[in-house]
Design goal:
Structural class: mainly alpha
Number of strands: 0
Strand content: under 5%
Order of helices and strands: HHHHHHHHHHHHHH
């Protein structure tokens, strides 16, 4: 297969995939989560098979344990979590109002430091930033509730997702063999190499990001609760769960936590600094330990391209697009690197 034909095939597959996702975006959430869950648990099923447990029983055992752990943890914290989320939503306008009052109290000091004209500019800029921050959090929450957590999708997640995960996990090896049998003989080894790169990237996205989300959710929820921050459990869970969207989880959690901490602890600086330190430690762990070790080295996507993918997929597909932005970016990066390698070995490049 020539380079031109290979590029056409891969680009065509990518375009068909994107168009299909756009057409079916309203019903994809439980299927995507089920597929990701099956991919996440496939190594565990393979290990159980090595222990001479049949695939069907291994699949059932894994899913029952996974669903049991999830439901157990969810039901234990659900009452407190719902209470805190409702309380945070009700208190948010009041928190913003109190922050504005505190800013007004500091206005004379700011005027002395900066002068009247610059102080007014700073105060106006801070007011705009706070209004935009509150609007961003509100819009993000509304979009998630509208596109990701509708009644149909919620029922689908609870009912359809386990069924999808069960059948995909059960037939995973057969599906891989069937796909491998369809590969063209002449290019089979080459395509297998690309698929191994894709598998490595997906392992970083799904298994790596899942681990990052679990660790960050536990860290922020426990640390903020122990710090005495009001709604610490809810803010910690929001921060950790939104960390699947790079940069967004940290920014949303940091703005919420610092706003609540200033209103709650003022004028006690210790509580405010403690919350600030918690987020700095969490960001350091995420940026220097978890993400590079578990995700970054496998994805190989530039941060600018990742940000563009998040905005583009979020605009096109809503909440489902946010879930797919990182995986699709990783797939595109693998295909681009493959195309560059082929180009560098082609007569077009070597003759030049």
């Amino acid at each position: 297969m020539t380079l031109q034909n290979q590029i056409k095939v891969w680009v065509g597959l990518l375009v068909v995939t994107i168009v299909g996702l756009w057409v079916l975006r309203g019903i994809l959430l439980p299927f995507i989560v089920g597929l990701a869950l099956a991919y996440l648990l496939d190594p565990v099923a393979d290990q159980l098979e090595k222990w001479h447990i049949k695939r069907v029983w291994a699949t059932m055992i894994i899913l029952v344990i996974a669903i049991g752990l999830f439901l157990g943890a969810f039901l234990l914290i659900l009452p407190l979590l719902v209470q805190q989320i409702i309380g945070l939503a009700q208190r948010l306008p009041g928190i913003v109002h109190q922050l504005q009052e505190l800013a007004n109290q500091w206005s004379p000091t700011i005027y002395e430091w900066l002068g009247e004209s610059r102080a007014q500019q700073v105060q106006t800029a801070l007011s705009d930033i706070m209004a935009q921050a509150v609007g961003f959090v509100g819009n993000l929450t509304g979009q998630v509730m509208q596109s990701g957590l509708t009644i149909i999708n919620a029922l689908g997640l609870m009912v359809v997702t386990p069924v999808v995960a069960f059948y995909i996990l059960l037939d995973w090896d057969h599906m891989v063999e069937a796909f491998d049998g369809l590969l063209p003989r002449r290019s089979r080894d080459e395509i297998r190499g690309v698929m191994r790169e894709l598998d490595k990237a997906m392992a970083g996205v799904i298994r790596g990001q899942f681990t990052v989300i679990v660790v960050l959710t536990a860290f922020y929820a426990i640390a903020l609760s122990l710090s005495g921050l009001s709604f610490g459990l809810a803010i910690g869970l929001i921060t950790g769960l939104l960390s699947f969207i790079p940069y967004v989880g940290f920014l949303v959690g940091f703005m919420l936590s610092m706003g609540v901490a200033i209103v709650q602890f003022w004028p006690d600086w210790f509580g405010i600094i403690l919350v600030f330190v918690i987020f700095m430690v969490g960001q350091f762990i995420e940026g220097n330990v978890l993400y590079p070790k578990l995700v970054g080295t496998n994805i190989g996507v530039h941060p600018v391209w990742l940000m563009f993918a998040l905005f583009a997929f979020g605009l096109l597909f809503g909440f489902v697009g946010l879930l797919l932005a990182v995986p699709m970016s990783a797939i595109a990066a693998v295909l681009v690197r493959y195309g560059v390698r082929k180009y560098r070995n082609s007569a077009l490049y070597l003759d030049g």
